[in-house]
Amino acid sequence: MPTITEAFRALPDMQLSIEIKSMEETTVVHNLCALINEHKASERVLVTSVSQETIQEFRTLCPDVATATSDKEMIAFLILNLTFLSPIHSPDYQVLRVPYQLYGIRLITLGLFGSAHDRGIAVYISPINGNVKIKAKLRAIFGFGFLGCVGGV
User: Fold this and answer.
1) pTM for this entry
2) Is 27 exposed, middle or buried (0-12, 13-18, 19+ CB in 10 A)?
């Protein structure tokens, strides 16, 4: 697996999504921010983490880098959307990263896309991995305007 520095050098024009998963988040957050700045990559990187504390720390250190929702932020946006309160929300993130379904409940709807797009938030559907049924459903809703899918390797 290449290092982040190797990826920045090998793919100088590629948009990159980097998820912070380390148990030593503080060190990782500081190092990642420094590397993004060193390689002048802030305009082409999206940073994600399921941890609210980790992503908030990253936003504080690297405010010019786009970030996606933590799990808590995603759930908060979904609740605000269901209660028609999303227009009052001023998010710190640029991307709503949401699963297609959660506990068997479909989360991806036209209303969700509309609410996110009205707030200037891009929508990424994650993770799809090898789920053939979800891939077929995504093909059926391609016209919703989602910007990407995130899968594991």
Assistant:
1) 0.80
2) exposed
